[in-house]
Amino acid sequence: MLSLCGAALPVGMMGADEGNQRGYWEPRASLLLNRAILERHGSAWWDPSLRVLEEGVFSDEEKAACMAEIGSYLNKLPAAPVVVIKDLQINVLADMWFEAAHQAGMDVAVVIAVRRPQEVIPSLASLAGASPELASALWLKGNLVSERHTRGVPRVFVEYANLLADWRKEVRRISTALNVDLTPQDEAEVDGFLSPDLQRNRDCGPLMDRFGTDWMSVVYESMHAAAQDQPWEDSALDRVFEAYRASEH
After folding, report:
1. Model's pTM, two decimal places?
2. What is the pLDDT of residues 226-246, one digit of tens each?
């Protein structure tokens, strides 16, 4: 959607399939780069643990080597005022990506997508055969880490349902929060791209917590408030993050 509003895309994007008929819009090169980094540490996008965030996991030499690889990728991006990269693996590698971007002379800004957990869990089950428990843990980890690692950089939270309901309003929010110019050349093309049937797993019922905790409801309610430009406390997410990390040991 952002590319239809003027943002440039990397070359070599993942295409569509039966599970995502509009396409995944993720660059193959960044996916492979991040996958290789994570695999060297026994991790992957479907790893619910926080192992790669532990202190000392990356030596100074390895971090420098990873940043050199990331920098090489960034330097091949299109020369445009705004370039958008969608790759969920960046969440756990954000410090290296952000630093490499700054070294390449780029500014970093983040759009955080917000969705109800009950809408994401069936998608993960269909995509990767994830159990409800694993999918719930992946949803928790993804949201906690994306929020935590983007503090201090320009960012905006966008709820998927809000985007489908009124994309013009959400694009204005993104433009204002990130101080970027997003102007679609053809609004009808955006209307056609964001058809309501994209939201296949609609769920407006009560939030379902798992693991005998309130973690999922606390995280969603906080990020939902952020997507509505309402007050919220990151201390609530800090509590959940620390409890989630402690549950691994």
Report:
1. 0.94
2. 999 999 999 999 999 999 999
The residues, any chain, with a CB within 8 Å of residue 131's CB and separated by 6 or more, are: 125
Q: Which residues of 178-197 are buried (b: 16+ CB within 10 A; e: fewer)?
A: bebebebeeeeebeeebeee
- Please state, in angstroms and rounded to a whole number, the distance separating the CA atoms of residues 140 and 184: 33
Q: What is the pLDDT of residue 178?
A: 98
Residue type, 230: Q
Closest CA to 67 of 96, 87, 47: 96
Q: The tokens 């590319």 sit on which residue?
A: 3
Full domain range(s) for residue 189 = 2-246
Whether 104 and 74 have beta carbons less than 8 Å apart is answered as yes
Two structure tokens written together for 106: 């780029």
Other C-beta atoms lying within 10 Å of the C-beta of residue 163: 21
Name the nearest CA neighbour of 169 among 148, 194, 146. 194
What's the structural domain count of the chain?
1
